[in-house]
Amino acid sequence: ILDPDTGVRTVVPGHGDPVPLEEVARIRGFVQEQKSLFEGKSSALFDFRDTFQKDGLEAGLRRMDELREQPDRFYFLHPEFDTFVYRLMLDDHLDQAIPLFEKLAEFFPDKPNAFDSLGEAYFRADRKDEAKKAFQQCLELEPDNQHAQARLAEIGG
Question: DSSP for 10-77?
Fold first, then answer.
């Protein structure tokens, strides 16, 4: 499609392949649709993180619930929280990571990655039965998830 105002057919970004104008329009439409979800709001992650680091796990979990009840002020993005908690897990803080991943699975029951991350934390904590259930839930949502498939094979499920 030729943009009648500019004559542009394709956008050539600084990196990667040229992008057809149709794709640029699709992305722009998506951004416009999503804008209202974030406009005038703050990421809940930063408020949670401050509470968690200052006052500990239980306070952080309570703060997540409080922030969740204020959708007009805060937005929750699973990838932001997942990255934060995954770092805790990788730093061997499973005692903190597991309850936080459990909370994220509660908040994001439609996100396969919420259950994949939870399963990984259980797996690392040698809680195989719980890991199996989490990975199975992940596969219900995303049957082709190779990580969950591989972990289930290791567990024997």
Answer: EE--SSSS-EEHHHHHHHHHHHHHHHHHHTT-EEHHHHHHHHHHHH-HHHHHHHHHHHHT-TTTEE--
